[in-house]
Amino acid sequence: MNEIIKKNGIKFGVISGLFSVFYVLILYIIDYKLFINIWLGLAILLGFLAIGIFQLSELRKNLGGFMTFKEGFSGYFVAALIGILISTTFSIVLFNVIDTETRDLIHDALITFQVENLQKWNVPSSEIKKVVEGMKENPQFSTTGLLYGVLKSLLGSIIFGLILAAIFKKNKPVF
User: Fold this and answer.
1) pLDDT digits (tens, 9 = 90+) for 17-72
2) Is the pTM of this model over 0.85?
3) Phi, psi at 67, each rounded to 5°
4) Exposed / middle / buried, residue 39 (Cβ in 10 Å: 0-12, 13-18, 19+)
5) How far is CA 44 from the centre of its chain?
6) What spatial distance separates the first Cα and last Cα of the chain, rounded to whole Å?
7) What is the 3-state secondary structure (H, E, C) of the chain?
8) Cβ(30)–Cβ(19) under 8 Å?
């Protein structure tokens, strides 16, 4: 892998990881119920998208104004992987070592939120019960749940990376 791509990926991976640590800390300090706020989640997702756009813009500039799809995707993927690992490590330590009580409060709030939404959509109570049982078996903020979240985050990052790499690629002219 090109040294420029590696440096860019590491730099922006650390930036996105620190962004994630910062927002988790802010939500944790303000109110644990913010972890289930859909609009805040979308705003944070847009923040990560903005970091990715800036990253690929800078990468293309550092590569002399031209960047292949592979270079763009590779740089984005390295950054995403590093950012996700930093974020997940922090969340595991915070919610499974330092403060398991808040982890449990968030989990209960997520279950309540899910039940209320399913009831709004007139989902049968037997189906709601299955969903709740599944959520109780696999808490989202447990170590296992957070590690499973790594896979989901990587999948989402791959999709964003493919799209952004296609948008930002700029091949060198043939002549």
Assistant:
1) 999 999 999 999 999 999 999 999 999 999 999 999 999 999 999 999 999 999 99
2) yes
3) -155, 130
4) exposed
5) 9
6) 26
7) CCHHHHHHHHHHHHHHHHHHHHHHHHHHHHCHHHHHCHHHHHHHHHHHHHHHHHHHHHHHHHCCCCECHHHHHHHHHHHHHHHHHHHHHHHHHHHHHHCHHHHHHHHHHHHHHHHHHHHHCCCCHHHHHHHHHHHHHCCCCCHHHHHHHHHHHHHHHHHHHHHHHHHHCECCCCC
8) no
146 residue type, one letter: L
Tell me how far apart the alpha carbons of residues 93 and 33 are, in angstroms, rounded to a whole number. Answer: 19
Q: What tokens were used for 106?
A: 């968030």
Token digits of residue 173: 């002219």
Closest C-alpha among 11, 161, 15 to residue 87: 15
Name residue, tokens 């644990």: 32
Per-residue tokens: 136: 């109780």
